[in-house]
Each structure stands twice: as C-alpha cells, then as structure tokens.
Amino acid sequence: MANHTQNPETTVHRHEEIQRKLALKEERKHHNVSFVMMILLTIVAFFAIWSDKISDSFAVLFILTLAVVQVFFQLYVWMHLSHKGHDFPIWGMASGILVAAITVASLMGLIWTS
Amino acid sequence: MKKWLQKGRFLSLFAMLALLLMGCGDPTLSTLIPQGEVADKQFQLMLISISIMILVLVVVFVLYAFVLLKFRKKKGDNSTPKQVEGNHMLELLWTVIPILLLIILAVPTVMRTFEFSADAKPASKNELSIKVTGHQYWWEFEYPKEELITSQELVLPADTKVHVELSSADVIHSFWIPSLAGKTDTNPGDKNKNYMWFDTGSKTDVVYKGKCAELCGASHALMDFKVRVVSKEDYKNWVAGYKAADDKSSANADGQQVFEKNCLSCHAVGQNGGNTGPSLTGFGDKDRVAGILEHDKENLKKWIKDPQEVKPGNNMPKVNLSDEEIDAVSDYLLGLKLK
Amino acid sequence: MATHESHKKRSGLMDWLTTVDHKKIGILYLLAGGFFFLIGGLEAVLMRIQLMEPDSKIFTGELYNQLLTMHGTTMIFLAAMPIIFGFMNAIVPLQLGARDVAFPYVNAVGFWLFFFGGVLLNLSWFLGGAPEAGWTAYAPLSTVAEDTGVDFYVLGLQIAGAGTLAGGINFLVTIINMRAPGMTFMRMPLFTWASFVTSGLILFAFPALTVGFFLLMFERVFDANFFNPDMGGNILIWEHIFWIFGHPEVYILILPAFGIISEVISTFSNKRLFGYSAMVFATVLIGFLGFMVWVHHMFTVGLGPVANSIFAVATMAIAIPTGVKIFNWIFTMWGGQIRFSTAMLFAVGFVPTFVMGGVTGVMLSVPAADYQYHDSYFVVAHFHYVIVGGLILGLFSGLYYWYPRMFNRVLNETLGKWNFWLFFIGFHLTFFPQHWLGLMGMPRRVYTYMSGQDLDGANFVSTIGAILMGAGTIVLLINIIISASSKYATTKDPWDGRTLEWAMPVPTPEYNFAQTPLVRGLDALYVEKTAGNGDMTPAEPVGEIHMPNGSILPFILSLGMFISGFGFIYSNWYVAGAGLGLVLITMFLRSIIDDHGYHIHKEEVEADIKGGRA
Amino acid sequence: MNAGERLTDANFPAHPEKATLEGKNKFLGFWLFLGGETVLFATLFGTYLGLRNMHLDGPSGAELFSLPLVFLATMLLLTSSLTSVYAVLSLKQNKVRSLQGWFLVTLLLGLGFLGLEIYEFIHYVHEGHTFTSSAFGSAFYTLVGFHGAHVLFGILWITTLLARNWNRGITLSNAPKYYLFALYWHFVDVVWVFIFTVVYLMGKVG
C-alpha cells in the first residue's frame, strides 16, 4: 500500500504535493462559503416564520425548500458526496431518501384519506 | 351477467369454473355461492382472475413437464449441452404477454374498487343504513333511522341496499358476511371510521353467517354473528315489534327480578338497561346463545354460569348466582319474545 | 515489517463463541436457524392438530393465539432469515473469491444479537406466556394485552433485528468492495446477486421496523400514546410502519431462494443460466417494487379507492419480473442434461409450487376481490405457497447443494429423496385445501370452527399433510445425524459445479483461496474447466495472508442486550441499565484495544498448497 | 506497512481514510448505514407529522416552542458541523494537533447543544407537555429525543476516539475513524435541519 511514497524526493511527488495543498485550500474556501450559506438559509427560514408576513402554506413550502438546499450543502460539500469514489454512497443515500419519502408521505398522508 | 363478460372465449370456461366452484361450501357462508350484488361481483372478479391464472398455470406446467421429460440426462450420454446465453425474442415474449394479461385484469379491478367504495357514504332515504360496532367478542348493530340497537343478529329486508358505518369499541375487528359482501375493518377511534355497502339479495327467511376476520383476542374464533334476511313486510313488523318490546315481555317474574338486579346494568332490554354488553331485547327469538351455542336453556345456563368457559377472555363477569337464580333468569331470557 | 502477532488459537466451545470466520458463523446461523425452524414447525403441527376436527378443545383461546404468533414470528425472524444468512455467510465470500466478509467482527455481533434475541423471545413461553397478538402485532390488540408476551416480542425482535441490519450492511460492503479481480457485477453468480439485493432491502426496510418496535415498546413500557385513539393516537401508524417493513421483508426472504434455485438448476442441467442479465435485472426490479406495494396488506383498512387501486396495479406489476424468472429457469433446463439429485428435486419442486403461490398473489392484488380473500385461509394458503413452497424448498435445495462445502460430507441421496417426497406431498396436502377453506368462509387465526359449515373435510386433510411435512423434516434430521457420524466423504466438487465456491479443497482453508483467483467470465470455474485448466488461475503470487482475530466481545455485547431486554420487559431499570452498560463497555473495549489481526506466513500457505490443503 | 504506524508527511496518502481495504470498507459501510438511518428518521418524522396536531388539552406546538432557543441550538450545531469539517481538513494535511483542536471544539459545541435541549425539555414538562400527555407529546419527545440520543452518542464516540489517540499521530487505522465520526456528525446536523424546519418552524404556523 501507499506505493507512491517510496521515492519521496522526486519532483513528481513535489508537484503532487503542491497540487494537493491547493486543492485543500480550495476545499476550505468551499466549506467556508457553504457555512455562510447555511447560516443565511437558517436565518431566512427563521425569519420567514418569525416575521409572520408570509402566508402559512407558502411559508411551509418555502422553509422546506430551504431545508433541502441546506441539506444539499451538507451532503455535497461537507460530506464530500461530490468527490470521486462516492458512487455507492450516492446510491445508498438516494435509495434511503426514496424509501424515506414514501414512508413520510404514507404516515402523514394516506392515514387521513379515509 | 356483466357486459364485459359476455364476449370472448372465456365464457364457456367461465361457466364451467363457476359450476365447479359453486358446489363448494355452506350456502350461507361460502364466498363461492354469492347471494347479493356485491358478493356476486366479487365472485365474478375471482372468476376472471382465476381464469387468467389457470391459463398461465397450464402454459407453464405443460412446458415444464415437457422439459423435465425430454431433457433428463440419459445414461451414458456425457455430451456437454450447448451453453445458451438467452434469446431476446423469447424474453420479450414472456415480458409482454404477462403485461397484456395484467392489463386485462387491471381494468375490472380498478373499476370495481371504485364502485364498491363510491356508494359507501351514508344512505339516501329509501336505502337502509346501519352502524356496526365491534366489541370483544360481539357485534352491536344500530339502526339510526329506526332508532333501535340490536346485537349479534342483524335483521335486514330482502332486495335492499344496506349502507354500513363501521367502528370499534376496543381493538380492530373486521366485519365479514362472506355470502353477501367482502370484509371491512372496524377501527377504533373516530378518525378511521369505515364505510361499506352491500345488497341483501332476493332470498327471504335465510340466515347468513357473519365472521370477525381480524385477530382480536382469545375468542376471535367465536366472534360470529348472523344476518337474517326477511321480506320487506316482515322487516317492518320486526322493527315495530322490536321497538314495542320491553322487559315485561317475559312472564317469569322471579327471573326478571334476578335480571334487573344483576344484569341490567350492562345489558339492555327494550328501553332499559346499560350498553356495555349486548342488548338482549327479544332474546327468546335469537338464533344462538353468545353467538355460538345452540339456542337452548342448557347452553344458556352453561354460559351464565361460567362465561370464560364458553368464550375465553370475554368481558362478561361471572355473576355470583345460585343454581335456582340461573334457572330462573334463563327462563326469563328465553321468554323474551318480540310481539 | 513489524506485525502484532497477538493471535491465540482457541479450541472447542471457546472457538465457536469467539469466531469471526464467515464459514463458522454461517454454520452457527444454520444451526440456530435450524433449531428455531424445528420449534416453529412444532408449533405449526400443534395448531393443525387443534384444527383437525371441529370444536376441538386441545389448544384454545389465548394459548392458540400464542402458538400462531410464535409460529409466524419464529419462522420469519428466527428460522428463515437466519438460515438465509447462514448460506450467505458460508457461500457469498467464496463465490466472490474473497477472504472473508468486510466486517468479520460485526458479522459475529450480528449472529449473536440474532441468537440472543431469539432466545429472549422464546423464553416468554416459560415466563408468563408467549405473545398473542399475531406476528403483525396490530395495535391496539398488542398494546392493551396485560401480560408480558408482547414485551418479549418487542424486545426479542428488536435485538434480533439489530443483528440483521448489521448483517445486511456487511454483505452490501462485502459484495461491492471485495470481489476478486475480474469478478465484475455482471459476472457474479445469481445467489450473490440475490444476496446483494436482499441486503439492500434489509438496509432500507429494517430501520422502519426498528422505529415501529421502539414506538410499541414506548407505548407498553413508558405509556406513550402513538396508537391510543383516546389520547390522540392513531392505530394506522403501526399498520403502515409494519407493512412498510413487512412487504420488503417478503422479498428479503424470497430473493435468496431465487438465487439458490438459479444456481442449482444451472448446475444440474449442466447449462449456463438462460438470460442471465434479464435475471439480474428482474432481481433488482423485484427488490425495488418490493417497497411500492405494502398497502396490499391493508386493502380492507379503509384507505380509499385511489390508494387501493394504485397499490393494486403496482402489486400486479411484480408478476412480470417474477414471470421472467420462471421462464428463464425453464429455458435453462431446456436442452440441458438434467440430473435429479436431491438438491435438484427440491428446485424442480420449487418452480411449479412457486408459480401457484404467485398466481394466487396476483388474485390477491385485486382489492375488490381481496375483500373476500383478506384474512381468510386463502391468504394463509397463498403465503405458505410462496414461503414454504418457495423459500423453504429453496433452502432445502441449498442445504443439499452446499452441504458438502459447508460440512465436508454429502448428505445421503436416498434419504434425501424421502425427505423431498414426504415434504413436497405433505406440503400440497396441507396448503392446497386451505385455498378452499378461505373461499368457503373460514377466517384465519381462528382456534376452532363449528361443524356443519362444510369446513371439516379440508381441515382434516390439511392436518394430515402437516404431519407428513413433519415426517419429511424428521428424515432430514436423521440424514444429518447419519452424515455427522460418518467420516469426511467428499471431493471438493461433487456436483460438477460452475462457480467459485467449488474451486477450493475440502475442508475449506480458513483463508479461503490461498491465492485470490482471477475471474475470466460468468460461471468462473466452468470457464476454467472448458479451457482445460480445471482450476482457477491465481491473480496474485503466494504471499502473507492477513486474518482477523477472534473475539469474545460480540458474545458479551449481545449478552448485554439480552440482559437489558429483561430489564425493559419487567420495568427494572437497574437491570436494563446494567445490560446497556455492558454493551457500552464492550463497545468501549473494542475501540480502545488495538487489534490488527494476525498474518499467516507465506511458508505456511505454501505448505498448505503442497499438501493439497489449499 | 502497519496500519497502526504514525504517518509521516512523506508517506501520507491522498485519502488516508480510504487507503486500506479496511478503511474502504468502513467508509462505504458507514455511508450505507447513514442511508438506513435516513429511513429510521423518516419513520419518526412521519409518525410525528401524523400526530403533531393531537395535543388534546395540552399546549400545542405553536404555544410551546420558543424560537430564540431553537435558533441558538441550531447555530451551535451548524458551527460544530463546520468545525468537524475543519478537523477533516487537518486530517488530510496530517496535522494531528489541529485535528484534535477542532474536534474538541466540536465536542464542546455538541455539549452545549445537548444542554440546551435538556433545558428545553424540562421547561416543556413544566408547561404540561409530557411524554404521556398526548400523542403529540409522545411523538415529539421520541423524534427530538432520538436526535438528542444521536448527539449524545456522538459525544461519547469522539471523546473515546480523542482520548485513545491523543498521543498518537494520524495512522491508517485511526484516520477512517476520525473521518467516519465527521460524517456521522454532519448527518446528525442534517437531521437537525429537518427537525428545526418541520418540528419547530412548521409547528409555529400550525
């Protein structure tokens, strides 16, 4: 394992190192941006309810959308689902979300149709 | 018969199947001997689905038998069979044909599903409406318009559409009269009330058997009820007689005293009495003791003496009565007749 | 290269309690599952004896309800699923060319959780009575029962279910990450594919059940009000949650049987599976649709015609991929050289029986007609046709097929044929008449029926059939006992197999393949055989093999759960706390003790190869 | 090399959490576990949504919930999610002290969140909103309590992990563990996003 470590002094390695550092720096930036976004989304959601200016049914839809966006940030930026090698995790989460969606729909929806 | 059944080659197969199946079972209990409109339509659905399925079975079985006989390994034959990957044509065939068969089945399925529920709302004026409440382990039947409550025996006029509102006093039960209609659950809680309808059929003076179909406790097996279908004339008389009935209708004064002292708090007769137990109005005319035993004095005494022995887990307490008192109250109860 | 050689060889009982070897865990699953299968079968026979004649008074009322509840629960959670897990453990890593499963330690935890959960549940018989609300435990029947039966049900199954969930994740990861070189997804044997899809279903279905059990437990132990209408609760929540889990569960059970049948039919027809890719696709599709149809268990609940119709059509759709499978099996045999070994007999018996169960399934999917079938003996007949006629015949087939690989002996074929015919004839005698019983108005789960309703004859025949099935099972037991007392008597490939599990010597070395094999096609071993090699080509040179250490912690952890289960059942918080404390301590120990396993040296592996042991 | 050995900057792999087969397995297995957890929480959410208006005589969510408190709790948890992702960045750079620091902050924020939740529950019980007072009460405490239990478990997990590895560098054996904890913590945050939206904010509009 870890074969590329055998000749650490080569320039190839150094080049990789620099690239990785840059990538990490970029990543940190993404993390910071998404943190700010998530805080903003949260504030907007709270404000939408707090202010009492928006009609209830629209507010519910609105804050649910904000929640989904925020979760997308969590999953893709902080949990790195967008990175390479995450095919099966994406499949797993997608299937889970599908089952989750029909479960929620049935428990809150179907019950009351009778 | 139904329009969409009249065409096609299925008809003869249908007739044969119907004949074959209709020989089966007790005519007051079997779903295969339908007596009302709903049960009849449900039986038709069974026939359609069984026919399609028998078609499938025959094809598969014939093919299978052929393969098993033809391709068994013969002694001394050590040749290697050709390794076939598959065949797109064949695979397409056995994907598409089942889809077509299922579409044929799906159309009447959806149609009937909506039909049986569309009318399940409270009745219009000329139709009968009843409220059914399941109890561990007996059935309460309320006729809201007629303003009377009976138990265990549902008396209905022939040729009538009956609308049913179902609920439960305790756990989930399921209301099922196989010869007249499929079952619907009785759910506890107002949120989940159910509605259904059925037609009582043209026969009069028959007693259909009803069952509880959802596991509801120790005596689930014994939670039977009866549906007595009578002529419209007789039905009117029955309603009048039932409403006029009171606790004096039986001549046994001793028994009446015992009854009033020990039983009336739970059981109603006429306008008097509680409603935690089944109403006993007109008990002498009923078909069964506790819904299951032959209707005679011996059984009634046995039941009063030790209810748990007859129906385990039921809610009737063992009342402390002497043998004489039990004898008297039995006579009194059997004497309760409708006018 | 410094290695921690902390490996201790354990022997006897300690070896079995601490093992993390997938082959041994497979055997443990098979033994424990087989034991519970016998208990569940006994319960079934007792019920049939009670129903043999009308008005009989042998097992009545509550006792009968306990029998029916425990029969269903035991057969599904403690017999069928563990036996499936037994085969998955014993065979899947071999079919993949892997050294072990992805998480050997978690694998052991999964087994012991199941085992202790099952024991806990069955102890209820001796501690105040078994649960009596049916395996579905519908509220409020399950919440109002005053004895502790349902508490045992909830806690026992919760613990066993946690083990199952762990097993599901384990096999998903194993199959995704640990395939040998060349073993692409589309070269995986069908049994492995079925295990893959089944594990996926477990992963997404069991959490719903976990929550359902928590709600039921909170309702009973902590007076919660989820299902109490008087306090604003709703009984339908339980029904939905139960069937959201419950329907996928049916496919969790049947898919592995499909896999076994595919392997057996292909092997004993000496032909590759007809329409392999269609079979794979059908398996995945059935798994997917399995989540979309649960309401067909609730047609009479009153969810309205729209819901009923949608779920009716979705249910019918499942018939299509299932039909594809049936025809593919038949055409696999077409043009083959069919050898009727016992394993093949069971597979051959499976196909028509399952088709019959399938067609009654389609009939049940018609809601308006289902109002008549629902909760009647027709349903009982249907699901026994799929679960016994499908799954159990498949498991018997798998047992005879893989027995040589798992236990290094071949089961006696003559006894095997007796086993098959007794069981098969008994099965049809038992369950075929039950279709009629249901249509003639007999509800299910009743402990008696009155005479004079035309129900006597069919019930009598049904009981005779059940006794025959029992006799068939006893023949199997005799067969196993005889084989156990005989010597190793098998070659490594007794059936002229096609897949990787037959490419190792007998007994299977603890590290499976000495050198990870190179897979060059579907039916990897068959490919090599036709290429004239007869043996797999290695994908790597002989080298050191890394192995995990055994551990007693899985056993102790599960014991802790078992103890806490008692605490919750009897509302004794000290006991519950102590049990959970034990669980936490084992988890803590597991995380602070470094255990990097041990290595089998190259020289040892070479010696094994030379000696024919690897 | 041995998985328990301290990694140096020279031999540090690009993805230490997935550099061994064991790490790869843990990584995938944990993600799949989170997929299952999604269904678990969905079932709890569904139950809550089905019963949230069933408060009978007790206070309703709209009367009960205090948004400033929830907002504060949300900020704590969101920030802790950020600090744990910083820890993962440190992990990728083989900076063990920085990793420990960020996880410690995560731990403290998690404790703060848990404290707020306990305070909130005690407050509600005084208002007459208890686990047994109505179906709403049962569903509320079960859903939010399950999340709280997840937070608690996370706290115990990271405490053990940090303590055990305090004097060790990053190794191929502990790198996946750190990484998985971070995933877990993000997931707990994901669930909270839905809890504050569905339970508290939607509770306010009724």
TrEMBL record, chain A:
Record's bilayer topology term: Multi-pass membrane protein
Transmembrane segments: 33-51, 57-78, 90-112
Tree of life domain: Bacteria
A Pfam family reported for this protein in Swiss-Prot or TrEMBL: COX4_pro
Keywords: Cell membrane, Membrane, Transmembrane, Transmembrane helix
Cellular localisation: Cell membrane
Membrane found in the keyword field: yes
Primary localization: membrane
Keyword Membrane in annotation: yes
Record protein name field: Cytochrome C oxidase subunit IV family protein
UniProtKB/TrEMBL annotation, chain D:
Bilayer topology annotation: Multi-pass membrane protein
Major subcellular site: membrane
Domain Heme-copper oxidase subunit III family profile residues, every copy: 28-204
Domain of life of the native organism: Bacteria
Localization (cell): Cell membrane; Membrane
Keywords: Membrane, Transmembrane, Transmembrane helix
Transmembrane segments: 28-49, 69-89, 101-119, 139-162, 183-203
A Pfam family of this chain: COX3
UniProt record similarity statement: Belongs to the cytochrome c oxidase subunit 3 family.
Protein name per the record: Cytochrome c oxidase subunit 3
Species the sequence originates in: Fictibacillus norfolkensis
